[in-house]
Amino acid sequence: MKKNFIIIFLISSLHICATSSAQSLQESINAIISDKALTSATVGICARTGDGRTLIDIEADNPIIPASNMKLISTGAALHLLSPDYQFATRIGYSGSICNGVLQGDLYIIGGGDPTTGSKDSIATSLDRLFCSWEKFIRDAGIRRIEGKIIGDGRYFEGMPEHPSWLWSDIGTYYGSGATGLMFYENTQSFLACAGKQVGDPVEIAPSYPEAPWMEFRYNCTTGKTGTGDQLYMYASDLAPVAEIRGTFGIDRGKKRVDCTNKFPEYTIASIFADFLKGKGMTSEGPADFRLCTSTKIVPAEQITIIGTTLSPTLRQIAFETNHKSNNLYAETLFRSIGKSVTGSACYDSTYVAVNGTLQSLGIDTSYGAVMADGSGLSRQNHISPDFFCRFLTAMMSSPYFEDYVYTLPSPGSNGTLAANMKNCPEDVKTRIKVKSGSMTGVRCYSGYIIPTEGCKEETIVFSIMVNNCTAPTWKVRQLMDKIMAALAAAN
Questions:
Q1: Which residues are registered as beta bridge partners of 45?
Q2: Among candidates 272, 302, 276, 300, which has minimal Cα distance to 287?
Q3: What is the number of helices (H) and of strands (E) in the chain?
Q4: Cα(56)–Cα(47) distance, rounded to whole angstroms?
Q5: Alpha-carbon distance 5 to 8, whole Å?
Q6: Nearest CA to 246 among 222, 211, 271?
């Protein structure tokens, strides 16, 4: 009898301690979000343990704009469906026939959705090494001269490259480049910009890399006042090879590289590879893009003879870069690749169906808490609740690739988008936090995991902190959200 009383007493004491601790945590976080910087903001917070105990629930069911927290879903679903070792394939092939070393037909660079081709990213294969591989495929096939064109074939991804809800001012920027079947240099175009001598003078600006002689670039940009920074935006469409850069460039800015979108990456890579082959003594009629060169007959994919294939870095590597650098192009590629894998189509409508099915296979009820428009979070039509993020993150803990998924998430203070977070926190606290940030005008979000110092997966804290409609300075909001993450970390 005495033994049973002791057990009951201990259980009751643990319950009281847990309840007291939860109340203390709730009070701490309520105090943080009562800061006047968040007076006009919509705040949603959800925090749970891996075994389902709720620690914090503040408007957790309210779907709001997640910004780049969307990448948590894109990378996680892609890893779960496709596996961390998945690689994108780029194939080299030809139409026509080879006679006495002469290709009487066209050479094709057939994209398979590799977002790293020609990229500045450290994980990408160097362009020279990649082109040498392709040249070897061609020579091994017995081709010494090409009578036709070099064609950039991006048919692998159907539909619009960018989501139709993206803002017009975003789709001309480097971070607003849509995913295409054949990509190059992350579908961007670099310019060199230099302010004029006086405010109001034209900005000195010119394309630097890659060369795009088929493009007509127009410049309607002026030198701005001191402190106005870089406010240059390109306006472009894949409907015509014309683009205009508008806006201002502060007079106190030094000469700077400005990256904008490239709406014709297929033509670009075909042009650069044609020049590469010419330098190796292999001539052709030059580059072609199946969208721009209507005079070139593009044969059906099944009629192209494939002579070689190169592979991208692994999906695990690409997901790591996606989440650490918040790379929109990579995220859209992974998102649309889910659609391609499941339905055979990478258009957004098909992708929604495929992503929804993938989440359901993880055991997630997708009937409430989430409206997904794109994979990167650039669209303001995305609406996800903190509760949904916590349900997704918890479900990923049961995926066979959970460790790979956590590996892709940065910690506060690490290189990338979290470099400025939690600077004064101990290193052993920051390394236990694995989180993705998300931000755009008026939006600041952090969702992820807090790994316990000791213990099992069930004691991991899964959390989502989301702020919308906020007019306070970004640095101020970041400080408050850092305090919330620190409070959660102290709870385990």
A1: 58, 465
A2: 272
A3: 11, 21
A4: 5
A5: 5
A6: 222
Structure tokens at 318: 């690409």
Q: At what angle do helices 315-325 and 70-82 cross, to 10 degrees?
A: 170
Question: 3-class DSSP state for residue 415?
Answer: coil
Q: Are strands 443-450 and 433-440 parallel, antiparallel or unpaired?
A: antiparallel
And the tokens for 213?
A: 């002689």
| Cα-Cα-Cα-Cα dihedral sign, residues 297, 302, 306, 310 | positive
Write down the residue that tokens 């943080």 correspond to.
32
The residues near 399 (Cβ < 8 Å, ≥ 6 apart) are: 76, 79, 80, 362, 405
Residues 6+ apart with CB under 8 A from 137: 92, 307, 308
> Sign of the C-alpha dihedral, residues 32, 34, 37, 39?
positive
- The phi, psi pair for 194, rounded to 5°, reads -145, 130
User: What's the pTM?
Assistant: 0.93
Q: What beta strand segments (E) does 402-487 contain?
A: 433-440, 443-450, 461-468
In the chain, the domains with their CATH numbers are: 25-84+316-490 (3.40.710.10), 89-158+265-313 (3.50.80.20), 174-261 (no CATH)
Query: What does each of the 492 residues of the chain score in pLDDT, given as a tens digit?
Result: 455 544 443 344 334 444 456 678 889 999 999 999 999 999 999 999 999 999 999 999 999 999 999 999 999 999 999 999 999 999 999 999 999 999 999 999 999 999 999 999 999 999 999 999 999 999 999 999 999 999 999 999 998 999 999 999 899 999 999 999 999 999 999 999 999 999 999 999 999 999 999 999 999 999 999 999 999 999 999 989 999 999 999 999 999 999 999 999 999 999 999 999 999 999 998 898 766 555 567 889 899 999 999 999 999 999 999 999 999 999 999 999 999 999 999 999 999 999 999 999 999 999 999 999 999 999 999 999 999 999 999 999 999 999 999 999 999 999 889 999 999 999 999 999 999 999 999 999 999 999 998 767 788 999 999 999 999 999 999 999 999 999 999 987
Burial 359-371 (b: 16+ CB within 10 A, else e): beebebebeebbe
Query: Residue 467: how many CA atoms within 13 Å on its side-chain side?
Result: 31
Question: What single-letter DSSP state applies at residue 364?
Answer: -
What are the two backbone dihedrals, phi and then psi, of residue 335, each rounded to the nearest 5 degrees?
-60, -50
Residue in 237, 257, 241 with CA at minimum distance from that of residue 249: 257
Which of 230, 220, 217, 232 has its CA nearest to residue 262? Answer: 217
